[in-house]
Design brief:
Elements (H helix, E strand, L loop, with lengths): L1 H13 L4 E2 L2 E6 L12 H13 L3 E6 L3 H14 L7 E7 L1 E4 L2 E4 L10 H7 L1 E2 H8 L6 E7 L11 E2 L10 E7 H10 L8 H7 L3 E4 L13 E2 L12 H19 L2 H10 L6 H13 L3 H10 L3 H13 L13 H13 L10 H43 L2 H10 L6 H18 L2 H13 L2 H10 L6 H30 L4 H13 L13 H13 L10 H7 L11
Parallel strand pairs: 2-3, 2-4, 4-8, 8-10
Antiparallel strand pairs: 1-12, 5-6, 5-9, 6-7, 10-11
Helix pairs in contact: 1-8, 2-6, 8-9, 9-10, 12-14, 12-22, 15-16, 17-18, 18-19
InterPro entries: Caspase-like_dom_sf, Pept_C14_caspase, Peptidoglycan-bd-like, PGBD-like_sf, PGBDSf
Pfam family, one: Peptidase_C14
GO biological process, one term: proteolysis
Length: about 550
């Protein structure tokens, strides 16, 4: 009965707190499968409670189908007024996007994401943005993405995609786990700077985002409600308030004991059916305690990335190093637990994280030893090759060396020798040959060099022309590869700390990345290329998942071991 007593106290005390004016729509969808997603709809409802306590009028839908989302949106639209307060729409769940916009996926009985159903029954973000556009400067769209593995086809893609944000609207977005924490703890805090909070919770802010922006301003908050107001002595109103407070506490606890305590106090309460449904779901969830134990660790996004890196370096594919524990990561955890002789749950305890970290550190050290062995062997091979080139002293040999080792130990020496050969050839060449070559070299295109070779098939600069054609064609291919590699690096959204860690690791390995400042310049790119080449990775000069996993392997789940 403790929860009942707390609820009554909350109902009494909550009625006297400072109030703010504002309107909010909160939709939290998470139960797309039989097991509720980590930090799903149950956590988002805590944010709704926090907003209510600040005096917001809140329309709430939890694990809603299409009709439930429409009802909540209609209720929200009907209660909007122009009182000058903030207008907040908080959506958490699975999102998909297509040509026509982005959609919050409804919860269906089958749990399957069907494209056609989403297109006609999903909650369109354009509707939310249309409403918010009327409240410029005080309109907030908060989006928490739940990891899913939808079976999509031609019309839709996974995720939010790019949003067409109206002027004066602020969009805050990130993984549902981080958005839920922010929403429950800081969204309704008076005077909390949006950009500072987003940085603390590793969220992205788009659209209207001045540095001093807050959601609940001090001037929005009014004084305590007068205890003599009508309704305070109404027993029915008091019972309803106590019921609602007890229900909020049960949701916040989200445990069998919490829901049983609510039902003990309010067996016929307005949320009794929902409490019984949730109690049945928890009792049927096979690894409820393990899920809650992992939630209690409150892993940061960087710690979750560290876990994904540790799994990846051990050979368990997480399908991304993004700090979001979706089906790929859960599957990797299950396989690791099975191979490690642990109980297979797909959720991690503190001890298991420490064990995983130790295993990955040992594997990283093994890989480094193997890489050092390969590096020394490659250096021996390169030195032997160079000795042969020097002994023969032939132009073709120097050119072959540069093609094989473009950033080798003796690359500069090879280029110097070839330049001397070219200079001597230029002095000896016929005047017209030399002029045609100078023209081709100035244009520096494959067509210009091919024209030279057609005109001078046995010209003095034939070998140089052929090599430059090969280099230009190779460079064109490298440019295409570099564009793809750069996009892959950008998609990883490496933060400043991760970039500094990468530079520091390159510096420790003696690869000369330049200044360790979190900014990747040409020195850094060259160091990354040398690292990738020495480890047998795809050489691009840009960080991809495999390079990051190897490079940061010693870094960094960052969970205290005590």
């Amino acid at each position: 009965m403790r929860i009942f007593a707390l609820a009554l106290a909350g109902a009494i005390l909550g009625a006297t707190g400072a109030q703010a004016t504002g309107d909010a729509l909160v939709i939290g969808n998470s139960r797309y499968t039989a097991v509720q997603t980590l930090f799903g709809a149950q956590r988002v409802t805590v944010a709704a409670d926090a907003l209510r306590e600040k005096g917001f009028d809140v329309s709430l839908a939890q694990d809603a189908d299409a009709a439930g989302m429409r009802r909540a949106f209609a209720e929200f639209a009907a209660m909007l007024d122009d009182d000058g307060g903030p207008v907040v729409i908080l959506l958490s769940g699975a999102f998909v996007h297509g040509v026509g916009g982005s959609y919050l996926v409804p919860v269906t009985g089958s749990g399957r994401i069907d494209e056609a159903e989403v297109l006609v029954q999903g909650f369109p973000l354009d509707a939310a943005l249309s409403i918010l556009s009327a409240y410029q400067g005080r309109a907030f769209l908060v989006l928490g993405e739940t990891p899913t593995d939808p079976d999509l086809g031609l019309f839709l893609s996974e995720g939010l995609g790019e949003l067409d944000i109206p002027q004066g609207v602020t969009v805050i977005r990130g993984p549902a786990v981080d958005v839920a924490r922010y929403a429950a703890r800081d969204l309704a805090r008076t005077g909390r700077f949006v950009l500072r909070a987003a940085l603390d919770y590793e969220l992205e802010v788009e659209g209207y985002a001045p540095h001093t922006q807050v959601i609940v301003r001090a001037e929005d908050v009014t004084g305590p409600r007068d205890p003599s107001e009508p309704g305070r002595s109404d027993p029915a109103a008091f019972t309803r308030a106590a019921d609602e407070a007890a229900w909020r506490l049960a949701q916040e606890a989200d445990s069998p004991d919490g829901y049983r305590a609510y039902l003990d106090g309010f067996p016929d309460g307005q949320n009794a059916n929902a409490a019984r449904q949730r109690l049945n779901a928890l009792n049927s969830e096979p690894f409820y305690r393990e899920r809650r134990a992992e939630e209690a660790l409150e892993l940061t996004r960087e710690q979750r990335r560290g876990i994904q890196r540790a799994l990846s370096i051990l050979g368990y594919d997480t399908r991304g190093i993004d700090g979001i524990f979706g089906d790929g990561t859960r599957g990797a955890i299950r396989r690791w637990q099975e191979d490690s002789g642990l109980r297979v749950t797909s959720y991690l305890s503190r001890d298991q994280i420490v064990r995983l970290q130790d295993q990955s550190a040992r594997r990283a050290a093994e890989l480094e030893r193997e890489a050092e062995k390969r590096r020394l062997e490659r250096e021996r091979e390169e030195r032997a090759y160079w000795r042969q080139v020097e002994r023969r002293g032939e132009e073709a040999g120097f050119r072959d060396y540069l093609q094989k080792y473009p950033e080798g130990q003796f690359a500069e020496e090879a280029r110097r020798v070839l330049q001397e050969i070219d200079d001597r050839r230029a002095e000896q060449a016929a005047g017209q040959d030399r002029r045609d070559w100078a023209k081709a070299a100035q244009a520096n295109t494959t067509s210009a060099y091919r024209t030279y070779l057609q005109d001078w098939p046995n010209g003095a600069f034939r070998a140089e022309a052929q090599q430059r054609i090969a280099l230009l064609e190779h460079d064109a291919s490298k440019v295409r590869d570099a564009v793809a590699a750069r996009q892959e690096e950008q998609a990883m959204n490496l933060n400043f700390v991760a970039r500094q860690l990468a530079e520091r690791r390159l510096d420790q390995l003696g690869l000369k990345p330049g200044k360790v400042d979190g900014r990747f310049d040409e020195n850094t790119r060259a160091a990354i290329r040398r690292y990738q080449d020495s480890r047998g990775l795809r050489v691009s000069g840009y960080l991809d998942e495999q390079t990051v996993v190897r490079l940061l392997a010693d870094g960094i789940i960052g969970l205290d071991r005590d």
